[in-house]
Automatic annotation (TrEMBL):
Gene Ontology molecular functions: ubiquitin-protein transferase activity; zinc ion binding
Name under which the protein is recorded: Uncharacterized protein AlNc14C65G4653
Biological process annotations from GO: proteolysis involved in protein catabolic process
Zinc finger (C3H1-type): 173-215
GO (cellular component) term, any one: cytoplasm
Domain C3H1-type intervals: 173-215
Name of encoding gene: AlNc14C65G4653
SMART domains, sorted: SPRY
Domain B30.2/SPRY: 264-457
Organism of derivation: Albugo laibachii Nc14
InterPro entries in the record: B30.2/SPRY, B30.2/SPRY_sf, ConA-like_dom_sf, RNF123/RKP/RSPRY1, SDE2-like_dom, SDE2/SF3A3_SAP, SPRY_dom, Znf_CCCH
Alphabetized Gene3D superfamilies for the sequence: 2.60.120.920, Zinc finger, CCCH-type
Alphabetical UniProt keywords: Metal-binding, Zinc, Zinc-finger
Amino acid sequence: MELLELLVHFNRTLCISLPSALATTENVKSIVEEREGVPAPMLELYVNGYKLAKDAQLPILPSIIRARVARGLLGGKGGFGAMLRSMGKGSGSKATRDFGACRDLNGRRLRHVNQELAIQKWQDEKDNREQQKRLGISERELMIEDTPSGIPGWYLPTPSWSEGIKKSHMRRQRNTKMCQNWLKARQGGREPPKNAPRWWGCPRGRQCDFAHGEEELRGLQLTEHKRLRKEEEDCEKQCKQRRYIEYEKDMRSDLADAVQQGLSRRGKLEGRKNMQELGSTCQVDKAKNDRTSWLESINDSLALTFRYGLCEVRGTSNFGTATASSHSRIDGRWYYEVKLITAGVVQVGWAGESFHTNSDDGDGVGDHVRSWAYDGCRVLKWTEGKDLDYGEQWEAGDIIGCMIDLWKGQISYTKNGKSLGVAFDNVNNSSSDERFFPAVSAEEKQILLMNVGGQPMQFLPDGYSSLQGTAHVPKIVEDGSQCEVTAIKSDMQDRDRNTIKAESPIEAAEKDRADWSKFTTAKDLEQLGLETLKEILKRRGLKCGGNLEQRAARLFSIKNKAWDEIDAKIKATVHASQER
């Protein structure tokens, strides 16, 4: 009789040989009962997922017959799943937070769906990341994002069968607040010992949930900490600048006082009695605080403060520019100085009469074809908007000398008296009668002091002259027991507004070489030209801005009027900082 070889799998694979006449499901169950000890009535046979009937024909090799227990486990009334969940929430256990291997109703893994949402969220926040980069916000300042599930990085809701994550049960994120013990340990300027750990002063040490210093701080507290630190640094910088500007004295008055004291000592050495005992007088004409607005801000893009013959230039816009067109020159060798209060992006140099710029576009001196500038912050020279390497890196407190040789057509610079070499050649090749004047541009919050000759130059090179004339040197006239010290005034002092105010419009017109009888309308005054009208208005202490028609109308409006009769709106404003 033919034998049939059968493979039956029940926990393990069994090889069974039966005659073909006895190869029934009941006999196979009996053999499995003998070998495995499971009662035959509880077994069911399956082939390829289909249950075999009692009279079904058994398949031979290589098919495998699988035996399974037909009945379930005996149990109580239920509640087994609830018991498992309650045990899972017990002490020492962690709630399930990884659902990536689960599938949704479409059969997709939840981790793949979550990754798609994460990519979409990253693309949507592109603009926010660029704005944070411009504002200097680091990743440590950003809190971990709040998700619907409460699990960082999981943007899907948690499955209904999961225990879930309650936000009230979640611990506060570490290092989002400063450690108070750490701060108290450093009060009063106390320094930690050498080689002390970062958490020195905190009894919890590295196990502390709070931040020990800015390096560990995260989130909104880091942003607030950086803001407060920046405010302190700005306040300290402002105090230093204020102390520096107060230190800038009126050298002309000090010089006259020194001369007077020197004359007194000289008289004593020559055996003369004290001049005050003789009833003599020693008069000193001290140089007044020069309030002349010789520098003009283009479109009010810079804040200018005139004091002691200097001009403080403060950046208030994107890239503001100021020009000293009243000191324009057509030939010669000229020099002015700039003292840097801050060492940021500033461009100092010269410009021609056709120079124009736009602060909103970030253009300044050196960006126009008829302008030339040096920027020591970036160590570059600029003209026609093109830059080349030049000079040395400058720092706050450096004095930059700006020289122009109109005979050779060269522009050069110095740093603290040290020559940086020729920066530009052939600057005056466009027109033989073009005039050149100083020009500076500065970024917002940059500060510098500009001196065109109102104070003695620190590093005036040989062969060059300051634009505003030499410093005011007292002239000494001695006659017996009396002496008189008279300060030689420069051209700008001759235009002191206090003197101009005492003049009538007719006297001022005569000094301006303007015949008022020829000008019956404001239109007639336009014949004088833009620059001439500007000079006349400046001499009279009036506002000198605007176009040709506006300047002519402003000047014509004061014809035959005394100073007190002139509308205050057209008078030049003198800031309190310009007073001594």
